[in-house]
From TrEMBL:
Name of the molecule in the record: General stress protein
Superkingdom per UniProt: Bacteria
Amino acid sequence: MNTAESIKLRAQSMTLKNLIELYRLCRSAKHQLYICSKKTMCKIKDLIELEMFRMANWEKECLIVIEGKEAGTLVQKARSIISNSRAGTQ
């Protein structure tokens, strides 16, 4: 059974590297990735769409939604990716 889990990201966390890692994580697990801002919701189908969303929706924060059988596990991995990148920039 599919479930959906979400994680809220700040704009500083939405680096292209972080989003690519998150996209690859979801694709390898065959999960769906959605990104929501105040103005837009987008189902991410490829990397170009992901980067276009990031460039067009530069807000203080956005919501990442992962849908699939292991959504909770992938959200935890996404948090790890983001926290590891923060530690590297400080």
